[in-house]
Amino acid sequence: MSKEQKTYSIFTIVIIASLFGLFSGAIGQILIQNYFEDQLPWRQNIDASNYQKNNIIIREAKKVVIEQDAKIESTINSIKNDMVGIFINKFPASVPIDELNEEVKKELALLNELEEAKNQKQFTPINPEEYYQFNENIAQGLIISSDGWIISNLALDNQQEGNTKLIKEEKLPTNYSVITQDKKIYDVIKIIRDEDTGFTLLKINTPENFTIKSFLPKQNIRPGQFAIIANWDEKYWFSSISEIKNYSGLIKNSDTLNDEIILSNNLPTTFNGAGVFNITGEIIGLVKDKTIKPINHYSGIFNSLNQEKEEVKRPKLGINYINLSLLHGSEQSKLKGALIYPDTEGISVYGNSKAELAGLQKNDIIKSINDIEINAQNDLVDLINKYSIGDEIVIKYISEGEEKEVKIEL
User: Fold this and answer.
1) What is the per-residue pLDDT across 66-80, written as a single tens digit (0 to 9) for each?
2) Which domains does the chain have, with CATH numbers?
3) Distance between CA 282 and CA 276 in Å, rounded?
């Protein structure tokens, strides 16, 4: 056989073998799909829940878990001093030396310190554990200002309730004390009852400045964010934000705050009055009867706390409106602003309100407050709530197709 014939024969054999292999593969695929597919493990869906942790490999998973745990621990250590317990005052947090009797002096075992303090005209600190059981707190609170303002779930009796009335120390029918995590006791010298939210604000007598956590703006609160709910007694609940819900409906009131933060799991009742923080330690909100109110609800009243007034109130504009950015549709999708619109009682602008005095009326569209555009992220009620009584704002609006501008003192 010649060399050319041998080469041709080998080439023919290779072609026949290839065709036979392709044919066998096709037949095998048909048989597997019709008869054996369900019996082959690599062709079945994998249920990860049936596998132990060491069966599923996540690249550098240990590092991720350790870093997150370390961050959570660091945040907890930083926020635990922001929460305080509120007690009925059993003994003044600090008393003049001359007012201490011999029995109290012996109980405290501070005879030497008392003599030195007397010479220096100092006050003698009281050990909280000598007079208070830490589980006897009647409420808890969150420190919100460096000079000692606290927002709490303290329930006041009828004698103390009022529409954000400032109650001073000499008028308090019940004396309260505040105890911090480092076991310091402070006397409450002022109380404000906020009827709009149901929370109570307390001012303590303190010579020191507290370190305050920053407040997370509402537009930065988003679903999926990790949340740490902290009690004053160092109990914590971990969750994530499911949604921010508004109960106002389509027509909103410029002066009513109806937002609520919804968690992905149910919060125990023992966390009433707790603070809610994100993983970096910023304050997200406060727990009130198992609901969480965003911290921005209190912006207006926080701004006026240091003003020496007998009454502390939020600024009010006095309109009902529709946020056009929240409407969906081909024509409305590009609209922005707050359309002044009547509620179910037919009221669009309230009588003698700041809005009425400024000339705002039904069907006007408020476009911005101090050049901040009203849209889905910046709602009118949130923008107004940032200011204090007496602040001046510039409202830009459209009335009967004409762009206008007006200054209003809140």
Assistant:
1) 667 788 888 888 888
2) 82-204 (2.40.10), 218-303 (2.40.10.10), 320-409 (2.30.42.10)
3) 9
